[in-house]
Amino acid sequence: MRISFYFNQREVLGLGSIIEVKKLKKSFVRKGGKPINAVDDISFSVQEGEIFGLLGPNGAGKSSVIRMMCGLLTPEQGDIRICGHQVKNNRRKSLRHISAVLEGNRNLYWRMTVKENIAYFVGNRGYSYRQIQSDVDRLMKQFKIEHKEDELVGNLSRGMQQKLAILISLAIGTEAILLDEPTLGLDVETTEELKRILVQICMDFKKTIIVSTHDMKLVEEICDRVVIVNQGKKVVEDSVENLLDLFRTKTYQMRVKGGKISEEVFDRIQSRFPWVRFDAENRVYLVNIKEGEMFFPLMEVLKEESVSLESIETVTVDFERVYTTLCERNFKDVIHV
Fold first, then answer.
1. Residue 158, Cβ neighbours under 10 Å: how many?
2. Which residues form the ABC transporter domain (predicted)?
3. What residue spans define the domains of the chain?
4. Window from 60-69, 78-87, 160-169, 247-256 with minimum mean pLDDT
């Protein structure tokens, strides 16, 4: 179930694009001298007030995109604009609108206390700790780390460190927050807490959040829209609901009396309907239908072959299946990318 359900169906502000990424390219050279296209012609936009997912497996190019958005890497081609400012030519103005929580909590100083880290990073943005102390106190209570104020960051759990990094990104007051693999290494309980915090941030603080991750459940449960990348290329960009609906309405699960159709009969069925397959583990038949009218001829053939159905139901789809299918097959005739 999508977490936004618990927050009274959060609405995106819809005030236009806050980040525009156009035709981004970046390559790296391997030890043997052969270049790798880490980011290959990727474009997408992030709307103000939404939680946007950048989803892909390890090595897909997600972190490289995030680092280019933060100005830590220079793209070979392409353009990034944040609140209308071009990162390449107006780095200071553009980066004033975003803060980043990089993978591995590398944006915290472990030999400084929680309070010292907050004071240092807000100071870098031109604020004194005294100016934002009331906001920080409120955030520390909300994030349940007020009792750790004088603790060295190196002594905190990974979950506490992650919450502190996000707290700092809120305290410095940017419109957008970039999170690179925010749930990596967290236990289940902390991950669930972090999901709720991120959705609450969008509600209470009207922030835009970009999440780079390989965690499909995270994207499915909290993101409004997603761009899927694989091997440096964009596979698709759409709302999470649209991608889920695409498969939910086209996949059915059939149980037959006796548990299984004979091989001879099934071969005849599959010769006409190759999108029917048998799930041996669950002893059900999965029917992937691209066009609604194809379902009825299948029913006629089953009747002709004397196949009796016990049940037929729509498959409950999760984002893992959507992601895997999109990466393995070409759906450009179905989805506009």
1. 14
2. 19-256
3. 3-240, 249-316
4. 247-256
Place of tokens 């359900």: 5
CATH of 3-240, one of 3.40.50.1000, 3.40.50.300, 3.40.50.1860, 3.30.2270.10: 3.40.50.300
Residue where the block lists tokens 């609604």: 292
**Amino acid identity, position 116:** E
How far apart CA 284 and CA 311 sit, in angstroms, is 10
Instruction: Give the CATH number of domain 249-316.
Output: 3.30.70.100
- Please check whether residue 190 is in contact with residue 159, taking contact to mean a CB–CB distance below 8 angstroms: yes
Which helix (DSSP H) or strand (DSSP E) does residue 217 occupy?
Answer: helix 216-222
CB atoms within 10 A of CB 47: 17
Q: Which two tokens stand for residue 76?
A: 């070979």
Residue 8 confidence (pLDDT) above 50? no
Chain Cα centroid distance, residue 78 = 22
Instruction: State yes or no: pLDDT of 116 exceeds 90.
Output: yes
Cα separation of 213 and 208, whole Å?
16
How far is 81 from 90, CA to CA, in rounded Å? 9
Residue 71's identity, in one-letter code, is G
Selection from 154, 64, 65 nearest residue 114 by Cα: 154
Geometric angle at alpha carbon 287, from 284 and 292, rounded to 5°? 150
Are 3-240 and 249-316 in the same CATH fold? no
pTM over 0.85: no
